[in-house]
From TrEMBL:
SUPFAM superfamilies to which the protein is assigned, alphabetical: N-terminal nucleophile aminohydrolases (Ntn hydrolases) (SSF56235), PRTase-like (SSF53271)
Leader peptide range in chain numbering: none
Keyword match Glycosyltransferase: yes
Ranges where the Glutamine amidotransferase type-2 domain occurs: 8-293
CDD domains hit by this protein: PRTases_typeI (cd06223)
GO molecular function annotations of the record: glycosyltransferase activity
Highest taxon, organism lineage: Bacteria
Name of the protein this chain belongs to: Amidophosphoribosyltransferase
Length: 593
């Protein structure tokens, strides 16, 4: 319902055969480029703010370009990019000697971007490129990541004498990794000289012996955050590395023709016509490296930490066409059946079941399956329709809210007025703005006896700092409800004590959890309803949230739940959450405690 910007998407392809092989077998040397396009389009859900692609041509002679990059902004960025990089060899024939069109290569990398806590603009769209006259020192980098300790890394770089041009985790990561790549090349230069090599023989030795594992180990140890970092070097190294907590996802596949990697498994399945079992998941702290020779290396870059794979991937972000995600979302819906039955006093005969389009549909099927298993006949209607997107050029508050109220519409006559309950499920309730400004208002026009608003995820109580755009506590309706309850009950000392703890001990413990401690889930639910209920609404509302236990039962392999519990997997996440509370007290409540 409330669309969240979130972690980006990555796609990588390494062709293991000459371009002429793909021309002969598939009718075009653009085989890799076409597959990259498909993989990016299949992950369009992960980034509609911008996109970029990179390419390395291993066969380009000196004096000709061998490393290409193209970027664009906007929801149509993928289409725009691939139009630009179309070239005059329209018959698809293989490039000949002296005829090297752009993006004819063996290594391809694509990125889809959603900015979260960072800045927007074409200069912030991945991939980022670091140029050098030595092939092996050229680095093209992209990633699905958000680093929580960029201040510390920036200080580390500047203490070495470096001066990054832009302050941002993407550029700083590029500069740090580029610096370590320079050191790796210099190591090989000295080794080649020690073997008596000279001139281009030294260059060839370097290009064929780069150890990206050395570069990654000396780079990634400095970072705290959730990431899948991907890159290409001018000498032909391709790599991807996953954070040691496994927060962000990555999947890969290899055969004798290609090595591919993407943020989501079904993307690879669909693009290459594979089964789920054919595809491997990159493990926490692990890298996938494809060397210039085509040799594939899996290397543990950092020790794996306690698994904290993002549960929001399963609830909302990833494509529901993944076999396991589909079943997990159904279970999330089914597990809510007892609470829903209690909310409607088991009166299924006078209840209509529906969902908020479109990402809650699978959980809806699980919910209705759960009711059927109670030997109940289920009445299903498509009550809500999503019509339009709010046009952002409307900036005045009242006009904008009026437009927002019409983003959704209803099916009139879909229930019996004043007799039927309406149970309607969504995947999550984050800020509550769309409920207040649109959903509750239009549902009330149907005159239901009662509205039971169901969330297949638990209450979202804490910000995310690993790639999702919910970084401010005051935006979360559960947090606002808890603060309101504190004020209602005269417990303001809890705010003061939490503030002082966040100031004095910011990195070892999440003190914001104390804000919720005095209240039950049900008490917060009732306060959320009170705050989100529009003026003049007639139908009573009850909220039903997924439990933490239900979440982990449905998604046992993705225990990362910090948005719900406050248990951040890294010190950086704890520090930023405590800092967000300090900012809230000082800048929103305007208190100096």
């Amino acid at each position: 319902m409330e669309q969240l910007k979130h972690e980006c998407g990555v796609a990588m392809i390494r062709l293991l055969k000459p371009l002429s092989y793909y021309e002969q077998k598939y009718g075009t040397w653009r085989y890799g480029l076409n597959k990259l396009y498909l993989m990016m389009e299949k992950q369009h859900n992960r980034g509609q703010e911008g996109a970029g692609v990179g390419c390395v041509n291993l066969n380009a002679p000196a004096g000709e370009e061998y490393m290409f990059r193209e970027k664009a902004e906007g929801k149509d960025a993928i289409t725009e990019i691939f139009k630009r990089i179309s070239h005059p060899l329209a018959d698809g024939s293989s490039p000949q000697t002296g005829e090297q069109p752009a993006f004819a290569g063996q290594l391809y990398m694509g990125h889809l971007r959603y900015s979260t806590t960072g800045k927007s603009g074409l200069q912030y769209v991945h991939p980022f490129l670091r140029r050098n006259n030595w092939r092996a020192k050229n680095l093209c980098l992209c990633g699905n990541f958000n680093m929580t300790n960029i201040d510390e890394v920036f200080s580390f770089l500047t203490a070495q004498g470096q001066s990054p041009r832009i302050y941002g985790d993407s550029y700083i990561t590029l500069e740090l990794m580029g610096h370590r790549l320079d050191r790796e090349v210099e190591r090989l230069f000295q080794k080649a000289q020690g073997q008596g090599l000279q001139g281009t023989d030294i260059t060839d030795y370097i290009d064929n012996h780069v150890e990206m594992g050395n570069v990654l180990k000396t780079t990634m140890k400095h970072f705290d955050g959730g990431y899948v970092m991907c890159g290409l070097t001018g000498s032909g190294e391709m790599f991807a590395v996953r954070d040691p907590w496994g927060i962000r996802p990555a999947f890969w596949y290899q055969d004798d023709e290609v090595v591919v990697l993407a943020s989501e498994r079904p993307v690879i399945q669909t693009t290459f016509d594979l089964q789920a079992e054919d595809i491997k998941e990159l493990k926490p702290g692990q890298s996938l490296i494809v060397r210039k020779s085509g040799e594939i290396v899996q290397q543990q870059i950092m020790p794996a930490r306690q698994l904290s794979a993002c549960s929001f991937e399963r609830i909302y972000f990833s494509r529901g066409s993944d076999r396991d995600i589909y079943l997990e979302r159904k279970r999330l819906g089914e597990q809510l059946t007892p609470a829903i039955m209690q909310a409607i006093d088991s009166d299924v005969a006078h209840t209509v079941f529906s969902y908020i389009p479109n990402t809650a549909e699978v959980a809806f099927h699980g919910m209705t399956d759960g009711v059927r298993r109670l030997n109940q006949e289920v009445r299903i209607e498509k009550v809500v329709w999503k019509d339009i997107k709010l046009r952002t050029f409307i900036t005045e508050g009242n006009e904008r809210n009026d437009l927002a109220a019409h983003v959704y519409d209803i099916t009139y006559g879909s229930l019996v007025p004043y007799e039927d309950n309406l149970v309607i499920i969504d995947d999550s309730i984050v800020r509550g703005t769309t409920l207040r400004e649109s959903i509750f208002k239009i549902l009330d026009r149907l005159h239901p006896k009662k509205i039971v608003m169901v969330s297949s995820s638990p209450q979202i109580r804490y910000p995310d700092y690993y790639g999702i755009d919910m970084s401010r506590l005051e935006e979360l309706c559960a947090f606002r409800a808890a603060i309101a309850l504190i004020k209602d009950r005269g417990l303001e000392q809890v705010i003061a004590e939490t503030y002082r703890a966040c100031k004095t001990e910011p990195t070892t413990k999440n003190h914001v959890r104390a804000i919720y401690a005095p209240f039950t889930v049900e008490e917060i639910n009732r306060k959320i309803v009170e705050m989100l209920r529009p003026d003049g609404m007639q139908a009573p509302i009850e909220l039903v949230y997924q439990s933490i236990e239900g979440l982990h039962e449905a998604c046992p392999n993705h225990p990362g739940d910090w948005y719900f519990t406050g248990h951040y997997p890294t010190n950086g996440g704890i520090r930023l959450c405590n800092g967000a509370f300090v900012n809230y007290v000082e800048n929103v409540l305007n208190l100096q405690l």
